[in-house]
Amino acid sequence: MSLKEQLIPKRLPGHIAIIMDGNGRWAKEKGHDRLYGHFNGVESVRNIVEGCAELGIKYLTLYAFSTENWDRPKDEVAGLMELLIQTIKKEIPTLNKNNIRLHVIGNISLLPPNAKKEMEEACNETAKNTGLNLVMALSYSSRWEILNAVNSLLSARKNNQNNNPVTEEEFKNYLCTKDFPDPELMIRTSGEYRISNFLLYQLAYAELFFTDTLWPDFRKENLYEALLDYQSRERRFGKTSEQL
Ligand code: IPE
Ligand code: IPE
Ligand code: MG
After folding, report:
1. Which residues of the chain have pLDDT under 70?
2. What is the pTM for the complete model shown?
3. Which of 170, 174, 189, 207 is most deeply packed, by most CB within 10 A?
């Protein structure tokens, strides 16, 4: 039986989040510059988006560029922005054909104006699609998101004189992810065992899967492997095994 056939459809996660890491090392191994790795990483994005859509996954969040990544060498940042613009432009028809809706989370006011415009247009042009929700985390970091949420909440409360304790339900409305359920599964490639400022609040009870595979080598089969591992776990949410 293939890995895909071994998956139990009813026990698939509704939301998968991925830290796509290892592009630079992949390129270096092959004697190329880092941008070559990013360029090849796009094929993995296509393949995994397709894989998730085929499985009927409702949400896929991809960490594409972090707040901290702005500190990389200027030419790498510029190359990544260019790649982003080109890819988004090219992929809109495919997204529409496959009923995929694009969303962006992050501080996109920091993006170059043309990149920001392309992203917003792509989100608008796919807004009617009802299949997979593809969430790109761009210029994103969790601490930025949480502080942004606290500040927005404070200013909203100032206006309506509300002094009640903040509930989880109220707080969630100020996060970039307010319209999405929390991820049940988080995958990180490239053998790094850290979260790197990604969805710190939302990953509270996610199952974590780490693989040595570098992002440009990551394909549907690797996704199925992560999903099978996920399906073998017992999610207890603080309870005992017997209570489930
Ligand atoms: C992930 O690959 C892509 C981004 C962070 C934009 P890296 O560029 O971090 O690749 P490594 O980790 O240096 O190999
Ligand atoms: C995390 O990868 C961010 C993205 C994948 C976009 P990094 O390669 O930037 O993470 P660190 O800095 O090594 O933790
Ligand atoms: Mg990295």
Report:
1. none
2. 0.98
3. 189
